[in-house]
Each structure stands twice: as C-alpha cells, then as structure tokens.
Amino acid sequence: MSDDLLLQVDGLDGGYGRSQALFGVSLRVPRRGAIAVLGRNGAGKSTLLKTLFGELPPMAGAIRLDGAGIEGEPAERRVRRGIGYVPQEHAIFAKLTVRENLLLGCVRQPDRSGLDYVLDFFPKLAQRLPQTAGTLSGGERKMLAIGRAVLGRPRLLMLDEPTEGVWVGVIEEIAERLKQLSREMAVILVEQHIELALEVAGYAYVMDRGHVALEGAAAPVKADPKLMHHLAP
Question: HSE of 2 in the Cβ direction (CA atoms, 13 Å)?
C-alpha cells in the first residue's frame, strides 16, 4: 500500500443477505483530502459505506486500512482504528440534549478536549446545548451528527448525504466545514448535490448499479458527458 493512502478497497462485493448490491468496487482514499461517491438512488453508495464501516459483511474483496485487512472486523473495532461514520438517517439520539449527544462522542477523549473545537466549528450548536436534539432543524441535526463523529477523533470520516433535508442557506456552511475537515483527515462524501460534492472533493467515483462506472479528478469528472448519464433516474 502506498504511504500516502489510508484506505484501499479492491474487488468489493456486498449487499443484504442474498441480494447483492456491490460488484467488484475498488477505490483509494488518501490520508488527507475528500473523495466523492456519486450516483443515482439505488446505485450502491450507502451500501458501500455500511460495508466499509462494518455494518454489513462483505461478500468478497479486500478492505485495507493502513495496509491491514479489516474485512472481518466489527464496526466497534473499526471505530477504534479511527473510522467515523455519519449515516443518512438516525444519526443522532433525538431524546437526548445536544450536550448529551456530543458527550457520547467524547468516549475517546476522557478530558473532553475536543468539545470546544466542535462548538467553535459549529457555533449554532453552542447555542443549542440544553435543547433536545429532536427539536433541532434539519441542518442543525446534521451539524450535531458531524460534530459528534469528529469528537471520536477519526482518521477517516464517512458521510452519507450530509446536506439531505437541509435548508439551502445552511448547505454552504456545511460545505465549508467539510472542506476544512478534509484538510485535517480523510473524508468519503456521499452526496446528491453534485456541485457541492465536486467542490469539496478532489477525486470522484461515480457508481451505477453497484459498479464504479466512472472515476477521476473532480474537474474532469464534472466535465465528462457520461456523468449525467450515470446520474439520470
């Protein structure tokens, strides 16, 4: 494995029970910087993240983090190795306060030293600490989910549709924060907002029916006429 790569995936097959959704997926993730995973609904993007995180067992293929195979490891072990994951849904504990949600992310920080960093990162959360998380707006919920994941001190942060259901005025703020995070760690971004994803990420993989149909640096992928073909419903 190259020294500048954190994660290397080769020939990954995966899915749900006997229903296969990933077919020979391969990708490379640098130690710092963001990659975008694009594709229409049902292309296999969320299945890919769940398999990389350990929520779904791979059917075949290799997943190597820092050169070590982690295909058979449970999600808890992958978290300890430094993989953070913000799922598309159910990413927060709605009945807990914002503060309680964030403190759950501090399990690897006994001194809670990262809490001030996250509150500076997302100032809106600092104003909502005593508020029940279920009463937050869509954008604030996404910020809370990302902030809690960051408190786990990940080396790789995977985000599934972080701007879904978010008011347009907040989307740009989240995009700017993702750019900042990508300068500090590795980021895999699954996102339907193509312009945003290719603004944040330096490299993109476009999935279609469980396969990687197109990949390359963000600018050439954005200009490639095949992109919209693979994104069309």
Answer: 9
